Amino acid sequence: MLTSVEQRHRGKYAKYCSCTANLSNVSNLSTDKNSGRLQCCGWVLVIVSFIFAILTCPLTIFLCVKIVKEYERAVIFRLGRIADRKPKGPGLFMILPCTDTFVKVDLRTVSFDIPPQEILTKDSVTVSVDGVVYFRIYCPISAVTKVSNAHSSTRLLAQTTLRNVLGTKNLAELLSDREGISVSMQESLDEATDPWGIKVERVEIKDVKLPQQMQRAMAAEAEASREARAKIIAAEGEMKASRALKEASVVMAEAPSALQLRYLQTLNSIAAEKNSTIIFPLPIDMLQSFMQRK
């Protein structure tokens, strides 16, 4: 059971709600009327502009007829609103001189250089990286209405994206996996610029500049690795040569005539290289007694 005081409060609250609803309905009606009046005023201005253009046709024909090229589109604004909700072109189109304005949009692929950016990699190495971005506008209306300057916004976004992507990479990944970094940047930029009607087609990393100390350290590391490989190759060569000499000694021990031929070849090479040296060849028969004793 409700008391009389609560009933009176509830009645006052119901009257307040009904008054608020009535006021909101009145405001909505007035807004609709204002919007309708604005639309009527807009149509009146358009009709007046059209009549004015017809009356002054010889003079205003150059102001009404516009031409856009094959790679361009024109976004027409009529009293601040986009006419027909689609771009015009290519070719000829008409505009009203007093109520219409238009913006030309280039649909060709545009490229720009990303200026060198000082980036701190994941392993705390400071590098300077620059790149190039290729993009094009596929929706002229979004490129005009969703962003104030599509080209400048894409440039700034490319710089920040380059910093964000390379900040998650190590120096080794940055130097060896440029293609993967370019694909990752292209996907991030394309996703961010899609509401603007922009398609990012390609992103390339041009140059990676390392500090002088890092360059010297990497050069010393590469030189040390090359020296280690050279020593390993030399040791393997000596091992193979010793094995070959061992096999040659076994063959010469089995054939004494081979040892004599080798002795004569050695004498010939010494006589050819050092002509001032006098050689007294020792007969091989004198050495056979020593070889038989052994």
UniProtKB/TrEMBL annotation:
Domain Band: 63-222
Cellular location(s): Membrane
Residues annotated as transmembrane: 43-68
Alphabetized SUPFAM superfamilies for the sequence: Band 7/SPFH domain
InterPro entries: Band-7_stomatin-like (IPR043202), Band_7 (IPR001107), Band_7/SPFH_dom_sf (IPR036013), Band_7/stomatin-like_CS (IPR018080), Stomatin_HflK_fam (IPR001972)
Keyword terms, alphabetized: Membrane, Transmembrane, Transmembrane helix
Name of one Pfam family that matches: Band_7
SMART domains given in the database record: PHB (SM00244)
PROSITE patterns attached to this UniProt entry: BAND_7 (PS01270)
Superkingdom to which the source organism belongs: Eukaryota
Main location: membrane
Assigned GO CC terms: plasma membrane
Keyword Transmembrane helix annotated: yes
Similarity section: Belongs to the band 7/mec-2 family.
Protein name: Stomatin like 3
Organism from which the protein derives: Acanthochromis polyacanthus
